Amino acid sequence: MALLKPMGNNRDSALTVFGLPAERGRWLLIPLGTIVLMCLGNVYSWSIFRKSLEVELNLSATESLLPYTIALVFYATLMPITGFYIPRIGPRMVTALGGIVLGAGYILSSFATNIGTLVLTYGVMAGTGVGITYGVPMLVVARWFPDKKGLAVGLTIIGFGLSPLITAPLANRLIDIYTVRPTLWILGVIFMVIILGIATTLTLPPKGWHPRQGYGASIVKEPRTYPKNILKSQSFYGLWSCYAIGTLIGLSAIGISGPVGEEIINVEPGTAAMSVSLFALFNGLSRPLFGWLSDRFRPQYVAISSYTLVLIACVLMINAQEGQLATYLLAFCLLWFCLGGWLAMAPIITLRFFNPEQYAQNYGIVFTAYGVGALAGTLAIGQLRDWFGTYTYAFYPMALWAVIGIVVASCMLKRERAT
Fold first, then answer.
1. CA proximity to 85, closest of 135, 146, 157
2. Which of 10, 59, 165, 183 could staple 64 via S-S, CB 3.0–4.6 A?
3. Is the predicted pLDDT of residue 226 greater than 50, yes or no?
């Protein structure tokens, strides 16, 4: 499908996307990327399938969590690896491969008769599909929007954060009608078809392309020099540490959102579940906002503001009492909001600090911080609950990590000037 067409002799002025001048046609790539990420984000809706599968396969609560945990591990592992292959084989092929693996994982999960098979199909295969596909839409829109990287990437990645608001109710409805196994099969087919269709539209602009008007005035004025080796750059370790801290805090909060509402605030389970939908909304909306801020302000200032909001949330929850629903809602809206912010900030800061031509590889390396933060946060939060018998004490280390994040951002989250 030829969606990118140069017309005439002037490559930049006559370039079209979807039959429109490139400056206008490129905007259609954002909703397409958002839809792809929305399909991938269904991996966060595992709890929709979990209870039904516990009954059908006679699984314990610990066993039923294994496919989700393994999916996150493979997602975090494959995303950095895939980053090195996107420039070599192209965004279309990578997206198509990821969509096939993701869809096959869901479809084969519908035939699983034991937890081992489910871990392999949903955990390994579906998680791998997410990891392969995740970085492609962000790379494509970042290349097409050199003048608005933060806003474009933030609007695209909002699909992953808002996915539970759309795909979870869909999955729940399908389970009510068809039961859990056919639902996994149906979703697998839907996701595979959608991703394969959109894969044909994902292409990169010619090297060096940029909008004809307003480009120089809209970008942050920084020298175009980059560290030769990202792993020898202090700014990389500053970004990696800040990203790990942000995801450690955010994913810890996500994991305990419902239980905290029930145990500390004493809200009804149904209210706690509805609250999580509100939190997911803030998680999604923060992404374009923090992306936009990252375009216009120095990264350390945006990062410090995020950690400050986390501190406010932690103080609110440390002092929260039974029945204080507003305090609980405000605190967790802030925590989910800041996690979404980091999932937008990290790719934008990677683009600003390091060579954009190597963005896929560079962000793949930076993204390892997400995996470390996810594992450390989810393991530590459960241990604290077992030690102290309440989730209240989980907010003390979260606050401490936020303070550490402020210090790291102030000292190390700075762009290096050396080539």
1. 135
2. 59
3. yes
